[in-house]
Amino acid sequence: MAAGDLVGAVLRSVLAAVLSTPWLIGVLLLAIAKVVGLGRAVVHGGHGRDPRRTFSRAEKVALLERAGHRCEHHSWLLGRCRETEALQADHVHPHSRGGATDVANGQALCRRHNRGKAARVPWGWELAGMQRRRRAYFPPGSVTAVVRHGPRVRSTGVRQIGAVSGARALRNVPVDAD
Ligand SMILES: [Zn+2]
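That is the input. Now the predicted structure with zinc ion docked in place:
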């Protein structure tokens, strides 16, 4: 039997097994999703963590202000969350995955939606949707795009000299130096 025939036979038997047990398809899809998620976490984690994890007071004020002091969580079924109390400053692209602690990577979330958010790397189309929705509620002239990563950092946590951050270039509000 030629190698090509053997591969074909193996693929056919795998396909037959999957089709005869439908739950295997679900397991297979979950496994693929998990592998893709881990791969993206590794790729984005390569940017290194921002040495600063928490947003400054001024950054939080700016995030809440441009969001109209309302949670920015959006669900396809219910639309935008209506919560306006006890809002928190959150990283759109998670800090643990190399997300910058910067207004350009920030969003206002209510406690419930901040708690329920896993350290998942958002897809580009999710950010595009967010940017589109933000045009409707951000003050005119504000930058609505999300910039995931700041400048690459050395292992010492010191920002590289001469590195210009897209996030910082896009920053539209003055921020404390702390
Ligand atoms: Zn909410």
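Residues 71, 73, 81, 83, 109-110, 112-113 surround zinc ion (CB under 6 Å).
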